[in-house]
Amino acid sequence: MASYVLKRFVTSLGLLVLSSMLIFFILRVIPGDPTITALGGAIPDVDPRALLAVRHELGLDRSLEYQYVHWISGVVRGDFGKSYYSQFSVTTLIAERVAPTLQLAVVSLVLGLVFAVSTATIASIWRHRWFDSALSGFTAGGMATPSFVSGIILIIIFGVKLNWLPTQGYVSMQNHPFESFKVVLLPAITLAIHVAAPVLRILRSSLDDVASAPYIRTAEGKGLNRRQVVLRHLLPNATIPALTMVGVIIASLLGGTVIVEYVFARPGLGTLMVDAVFKRDYEILQALVLLAAAAFIVSSFVIDLLYGFVDPRLRVRGREA
Amino acid sequence: MHRFNRRHGVAAVVLAVAVLAAASLGVTSSNVGFGVAAAQASQTATCKQHGAISYGIAGGGVPALDPNTTSSAAAAAMLPLLFNGITNYNQDGTAVADIATKWKSSKDLKTWWIYLRHDAKYANGRPFTADDAVANILRVLDPKVASQAKGNIKDIQSARAITKYEIRLRLGSPSSVLPDQLFLTKMSDTTDIPNITKTGNGTGPYKVSSYVPDQTLSLVPNPNWFGPKPCLKEIGFIRQPDPTSMVTAFTSGKLDMIWQVPVSDVPKILADKNAHIIKPKTVSSVQAWELDTTSPPFNNVLARRALSYATDRAAMVKVAFLGQATPSFTNNLINSSNPAFDKKLAPYTFNLAKAQQLFTQAGVKPGTTFTYWAQAGTHPEWITMAEILQQDLKKIGLNLDIRQNDISTWLAKFFPAGKKFPGTIVANFLSLQPNPLLGVSFATSGKCECNWNNAAFDARLKEAFGIGDSVQRQAAYNKLQAMISQSAPVIAIAHQTNIVAAQNYVAGAWEDPRGNVHLENAYLTR
Hints:
Strand order of the largest sheet of chain B: 9-10-11-2-12-20-13
Distance between the termini of chain A: 10 Å
Number of helices of chain A: 13
Oligomer: heterodimer
Radius of gyration of chain B: 25 Å
Low-confidence stretches of chain B: 15-45
């Protein structure tokens, strides 16, 4: 186990370094320049000497290799640099924005998983055709519909027409927990649809596969009712394939929040990233993409470890190997 | 009999010298300043309510708080709330005293003395003095500081604090409009440069309560403000995801004011009994197309004139701006409502036959394709104008390829001046200053992205700055306007500015000729 963990750790580190190089050099290839965007604005009149001075101050007149080494050495020390525009440190900007994103990610994950697991379980216990059809429709629609479309539909229905829920902004949990939940509900439901749909699909399929296993017949033969069979035997065994999907979803949640945060004007890491793209604020972009890559790698690693926890057979096989 | 003695003689000489000195001085101006006077009026009249205004900005928030280096148009509304300048603009677009009380100049207009308020303080309580004024001017002039105010005051050769509240500015060339030129330079707290862009420490009526860059900015009254206490207890600048959701939030009452309302939403707001559009008294900003006058085919003035004749400005104003703009038929950077506008200029009446003839003379062959370079996701009216032009050019055998880009890619094509972009028509919104000289100075060599480096124009402009007499100055304005109109380095389509909407209970807010909102005297009537 220890050697497995070490091997995974080293691989993950290598992937991170590769990601950092990719994002750094790709950013410099796309058209646009942060100094020009910073100085452009709506008023035309910039001294060319000032432009050169800004580029020098930002280190943009150095070679790409120098800039990369300078950046990565800062990252190792925990210094992600400063925004070209606001002059706030990237760490400060990310720290300010992490709470809204985290809240959105956690709430949408919980909502999505609770919905997926509960409806899959109910469908397995109840076995009603119309319920199954409804779930199939939800799964297809949820996976096919882009998040910004579902977000806008929810805004129109619940925010504009019914005026039940706020459609933008963020309220801190510490200040107003109830208001905070109200504000996060619509964006969380938007994201939860895209969490629930694939998980539900995999789980339903997995439940059907496991249902034909011999030990299920044995359990039924022993006199257990349907609910007991599903909860004690079917669900735990069907969870493993779904766990893989959950791992992928958790890892990709940061990407998912980008669109949803922008649609709902939520001041999280997603909007920070979109703004940084438009402005070519390299320091912020590099930091965020690196963090996203790290989040993906770490969550994959954790899911792999969880397999061993969920499925005792994997622990035994591992020991025997 | 009174005898004339040596003491009397000395006194007489001293008196004569004083009289002569006074005679050499130029115009003196002594204004209380629009901001303070209006604030007093508003407070006396209706400052019964205290409340908060939420101000929506679509697509981007306030990126930074350094007034002398920020180039964000969205941030412009917060500038007069946090910072004073030596001068400010009033609604007519004329410069009035702000943190200054008065000024005077030498007869040759090369030396100016500016007298400052004695009671101005920064939000952190530090008194504002002449040293601060000089420090801000010098910072703007510093070649290493990327300030867009630099162009206005680059002719200042020296800035000195004469007394605690008096500064003296010496210019390289005469200028009769220095007060206008000083408008863009704001009095920030230069003693804390590293934090200047985060704290927004200024002498204005409000101070920063909370700030998340590009997201939210909350202002509360500055207890050290030298004017009467503002009527609002808070002003919140709130970023909106896009113009549509901003208008939706406004019409549902969640926002009190919104900036840059899409033209297509104006009828909806006009139909709303609870809201109104704030209109500026005059407009100095221009919707224009920039051409590279150093690359083919627009390096030929005939091709530029041809494009101007091929531009159906009336249709563009009607269709793209829904009538919310004034067409610039004479291809003039100065609005026809400006008193300095030259009414004798010949218009570029829409005439495709003439356009075709001029294009042919310029060597533009049938089948040539021009590129129209616009921003994606904003300014939909630019695309409408492009589509009209595309159809019209098609009629005379020319093509237009319309390209939309994100803002960085759009800017990188033509900014800063000196870049080559042959055969490209760049859509742009020029937020020009209301003073006619400063407005047309956009076309100065090295400034305009159109690369129109015209020494004769530069010389005339420099000369015009030094003219004190109003009749002679108007003659100079006319010559400058004629040069721009005839050379057509940019194609001025229409004078139009940012559309601002407010709920009916918001009063005291106004929009300046450049399209920036002023909330210094805003108050709520409910």
